[in-house]
User: Fold this.
Amino acid sequence: MLINRTKTEPFRHLELLAKKVVEGFITGLHKSPFHGFSVEFAEHRLYNTGESTKHIDWKLFARSEKLFVKRYEEETNLRCQIVIDTSSSMQFPKNEEQTKLRFSVYAAAALCELLKQQRDAFGLTLFDDQINTHLPAKGSPLHQKLIYNTLEELLDKSSENKTTSAAYTLNQVAEIIHQRSLVVIFSDMFENGPHTEELFSALQHLKYKKHEVVLFHVVDKSKELEFDFENKPHHFIDLESGEELKLNPTQIKEAYKKSINEFKEQLKLKCGNYQIDYVEADIHQGFDTVLYTYLVKRQMMHK
Assistant:
């Protein structure tokens, strides 16, 4: 059974929480949702009439005028790098129990537990305007404990005016991790400054390096996408720059929603173009619900 923590109560033993959540996942997942994601080309064989044309090598056909099918070998050891945005914007909503960062930490811990039970290697990268922590993917129990401890320390993280440079960071991640890794990103994707195109290029860079990428776009949907505030004067403070603004939300609601939803749709479109799994992760749905829903969908798509 899933444990819906829309308002996550304090929990100081992430590994125990993750185990309990993943026990609920296992009953609904018939096999590993990451089974066979990483494949390497092995050889060609002649095409047999009537079989799927999905893996026909059309370039080879153009040269030889014969139909050959590409054969692949699955890599048995999955390497997963979990990447978490720890910039100040991830502290939203400020002074509330469930922030975007806490949501990401709990979801990452559950994912680590699932990978551990599958005996897969996993690592952790934390960033704001630069990479602050990078633990490469390994499968040893000592390494796994280190990752859980690092995640747990994030629950007490309180950073002020830490900006985001996701584009710069993801370009670094693409280069330093093992090729053909599964990269799972937890971020609100709010860049520091007008660097949207650089951000999209960084996502494309990950795919160019033959990584499989899953983006959990972590947001407070009601406040950040719908701009659902009471019709009265509010005092808004940018958590990254410290800039302050006093206004009635209704004055800018339509313009704000138009701008933020255009960015979200553009991000989804780019992810689709690059064959990146895009997951809208509303923190008020509960980390376990969002993660489980994605894993089931993934499993069905890769049957």
Q: What stands out?
A: The chain has a mean pLDDT of 86. Residues 253-273 form the longest helix (21 residues).
